[in-house]
Structures are given as C-alpha cells and as structure tokens.
Amino acid sequence: MTAQIIDGKALSKRLREGFRERVDHLADQGVQPGLAVILVGDNPASRVYVGNKVKACEECGVRSFHIALPVDTPQAEVLATIARLNADPAVHGILIQLPLPPHIEPRAVLEAISVHKDVDGFHLYNVGGLVVGNTIFPPCTPYGVQLLLDTTGTDVAGKNVVVVGASNIVGKPMALMLLQREATVTICHARTRDLAQHTILADILIVAAGKPGLIVPQMVKEGAIVIDVGINRLPDGKIVGDVDFDGVKEKASWITPVPGGVGPMTVTMLIENTLRSAERALRMRQADDFQEWEAPTLKNG
Ligand code: NAP
Q1: Which of 16, 101, 139, 204 minimizes the number of CB atoms within 10 Å of its CB?
Q2: What's the pLDDT tens digit per position in 150-187?
Q3: Can you give the residue range of the structural domain that contains 40?
Q4: Catalytic site includes residue 75
C-alpha cells in the first residue's frame, strides 16, 4: 500500500480563501480583525515564526500588531503590555511567542491574556474547556491536525489513536480533542517503555516528539493514518518530521509530509481563531447595543 498524501498546504490555502468573505462581512460592520503578537528577545527561530504569522495576517486582511520587546524586559512590563492589549478593542487576539527568556514565568504571562483574546488557546480557562469538551479557542496545531484528519473522511469515534508526545501545546490538547470525538486515545512520551508496542496498535498515529526518524515502518500498522507534527532541521539544513516518511508511506493509508503537512495549518488556525474572536466581539457588542436600545422601553413600561 502506498499512502495518499494529506496536503496541508492545499487545505490551508482553501481555508484562507474562505476567510476573505468573513473579513469582508466584518468590514461591512466596521470591524477589522486584529492580532497582537508579542516577541520578547531575539531568538532567531521565534523571529521567523512571528514573521510568518504577521505575513499570514496581512494576506488574510487581518491587522497585525507586532510588539517586539528587548530580552531584558521585566515581567511586570510584559504584563502591562498585555493589560493594554486586553483593553484595546482593535485587538481581537493576543499571542505571546514562546519560549520566553528565563526571568519571565510563562504561566503568569499566559494567564494574563484575556480569555476572550486567547487565540492560541493556552490560558488555563481554555485548557479547562478542552477537558470538558467546550473550549472557546482550540489550540492551533491540534486544531489543524483535526481538520487534516477530517479531509481523509475518517470517523475517529472508536478508533485507536496514539499520540506520541505529551507537551501542553501539542500532545495533551490533541489527545483531549480526539477523546472528545470518542476515539480511544493513548498518549506516549519520552518515558514510555517500548514505544512500538503502542504505535503498532494505532489506527491513527499522531507524532509530535521533535525527534527525527523516531517512527519507522515496523512501528506502524498497515493502513494507519499517520500525522507528523514534528519539525526538525538536520545538520545539512533539510527540514524533516519525526516519521521516516519514505518508509512509512508504503504502509500507511494516509500520511502528512513535512514540510507541507501540519505546519501551514497551524498559522491558518491562528487566523481562524482571530476571526472567530472578532466575530464574537461583534456579536457581544450588538447584544449590548440591543440592550441599550431596549432599556428605555423597559424603564418607561
Ligand atoms: P516538546 O515540548 O519538546 O515535547 C515533546 C514531547 O515528545 C514530550 O512530551 C516528550 O516526552 C516527547 N518525546 C520526546 N522524545 C520522545 C521519544 N523518544 N519517544 C516518545 N516521546 C518522546 O515539543 P512540542 O512543542 O510538543 O513539539 C513537538 C514537535 O512538533 C517539535 O518538532 C516541534 O518543532 C513540532 N511542532 C510543530 C508545529 C507545527 O506547526 N507543525 C507546532 C508545534 C510544534 P516528555 O514529556 O517525557 O519529555
């Protein structure tokens, strides 16, 4: 069997085309969606990620606010910046690029973002929402994976899903999202003994470990769907995932390439969450307007 390719670039392009109509609709109501991206320090990889997000915003008609703070910015100043953005009605999404410099406590910063603008979905409120199956903003990478899975036409209910990697930003939310869809989910991590014993049972295998070549064909069930979240730069500069793509594609039914699989979807889902936030804010404003309009009638009555 040779796997069909799950084309994240193509899906991402289709989704972004659909965004145009929503941006136009918001513009008709006098709203331009806005995303603030805060970068503390000058980590080169982070600069590239932030640049990609800002560029994607421009392409989709979303206004971006790029806030670059020096590496020695005190935590209090970062929190004050977030407070200002929380109060700014032109900003519908706030993202703080991780990792942060060591003197800044990531949780303190993430919890300072308004839950109404937490488009990365990392605030504890949104994480809790994932646990009970009702989150405002699903975290972007797992959200993108979910849509990629949908393109295969597979109903995940009852399927054995194995997630390799248990980070707060990919593995854990991924597992929770698929549990919500009634999959039987196993999470593996660096301390898992005999990884292959788990992966071989997966109808759907999702790998987010950051270890090139971790998943080889012997670890994959014939006909499995394989989603490779990993992004690794080899010494020769080549970008690869965590899965031995050439080998595993001969066993899987569907597989994502790296690059061109999950990567493009992450930024697209960030824009999706920002649009959703702007639409929510507009609905809330209209509800307020309605109440203000109705209030005199009630008082007079
Ligand atoms: P992370 O925070 O480093 O977490 C890696 C996870 O993988 C940890 O849970 C770790 O286990 C587990 N792990 C490490 N080695 C393992 C092994 N040999 N066997 C089984 N599990 C192992 O990384 P992350 O932020 O989740 O990112 C994971 C990968 O996805 C990276 O390559 C990253 O670049 C990529 N990524 C891609 C996107 C995208 O848009 N495509 C977005 C985010 C991340 P422990 O918990 O036991 O340490």
Answers
A1: 101
A2: 999 999 999 999 999 999 999 999 999 999 999 999 99
A3: 25-115
A4: no
